[in-house]
Design brief:
The protein is of the alpha+beta class and 97 residues long. Helices cover 34% and strands 10% of the residues.
């Protein structure tokens, strides 16, 4: 996924993957939102949790887990190396929330 950088725009960068989260276009965001709600992602999320372990990669918590994208280049065809297991608090912290 490529982003057009505006030098006057304040960036929010993911602490793990470096993706400028504020630069997702409206179209990209709609596609992402649709994908995250899809049965395909729900299945991929469960696969990732099983494969990568059901605990946060940062703090070790074993509940309230999210699967974080390190890369959106293969969205829909993710590899294990594209994903990271994080608890909700660590995930939000990495996105600056």
């Amino acid at each position: 996924m490529r982003f057009n950088l505006n030098p006057h725009q304040r960036l929010r960068i993911c602490g793990f993957c470096g993706v400028p989260t504020s630069l997702l276009t409206h179209r990209d965001r709609r596609l992402y939102d649709w994908y995250i709600q899809s049965e395909s992602w729900k299945s991929k999320r469960e696969w990732a949790l099983t494969l990568l372990g059901r605990q946060c990669s940062v703090c070790g918590l074993r509940h309230s887990l999210d699967v974080h994208h390190l890369s959106y280049d293969r969205m829909g065809y993710e590899l294990p190396s594209d994903l990271l297991i994080l608890c909700r608090d660590c995930h939000e912290a990495q996105h600056g929330k």
